[in-house]
Amino acid sequence: MNKTVFKVASLGSGSKGNGTLVSAGSTNLLIDCGFTVKETLKRFAALEFSPQSLSAILVTHEHQDHIKGAGALSRRFNIPVFTTQGTFLSGKIGECDFRAISPFQHFSIDKLMVEAFSVPHDAREPCQFVLQYNDKRLAVVSDLGSITQPIIEKMQSCHALLLEMNHDYEMLMTGVYPMSLKRRVGGKLGHLNNQQSIELLKQLDFDRLELMVATHLSEQNNCPRIVESLLAETFENKAIVYKVANQEQGLDWIELAT
Ligand SMILES: [Zn+2]
Ligand SMILES: [Zn+2]
């Protein structure tokens, strides 16, 4: 019998589009679909993934970089969409096989256990997810302006993280964005800066943690080299694999040891 592999890949990560595939055997979830259907299928193909094998689409919130192709993909392949009422009521998904979820709800999609939890972000009812297969836990967390105690508690029990490291605060503040956008991105309902994400990581259990993927990097206000050096310093002498997901290629499949 084939051993079921728990694995994750990114279709692309950043303000131009996000999508994360999580797979455990025949159970395959897409978290967010911020690309057109055509672009999504191209990126699926690059990962040798078939859209017919999708079990569900999970949507975190209604910003374009997370929702753009979600409704159309769902309709084309008849895939249910799990999201909050608030996100659905934004109207950006349209008609679909909608399954309402609430933050802090646990539910199962075939072999995967899903835990939704709310995050501080300027959307109607944003949530992020922890996925569990057997006793392995993966957190996929982006688009939050600040870190709350419940978020820390969720992530403390995880073995793998895809965590936003959106911007370098200095680069954002001295960069070309208009002041209103700087305030939005850098605010408590915006996005995590590198330092906030590192502070969060330092509160986690490094003996449990196996993988950290930095996501949703700003192309304008961050630099993969800065992020990599911060992670290298944070995880020095620890057996933790760290990577950066980018906008164009995302990230190839990574197997989580089970
Ligand atoms: Zn986003
Ligand atoms: Zn957002």
Task: Tell me about this structure.
The chain has 258 residues and is of the alpha/beta class. It has a single domain (6-249), classed as Ribonuclease Z/Hydroxyacylglutathione hydrolase-like (Metallo-beta-lactamase, Chain A), CATH 3.60.15.10. The protein contains nine helices and 14 strands. The strands form two sheets. Strands 6-5-4-3-2-1-14 form a seven-stranded mixed β-sheet. Strands 7-8-9-10-11-12-13 form a seven-stranded mixed β-sheet, covered by helices on one side. It is globular. The two termini are 16 Å apart. The relative contact order is 0.16. The model has no long low-confidence stretch (mean pLDDT 96). The protein binds zinc ion (2 copies). Residues 61, 63, 121, 123, 143 line the site of one zinc ion. One zinc ion (ZN) binds next to helix 2.
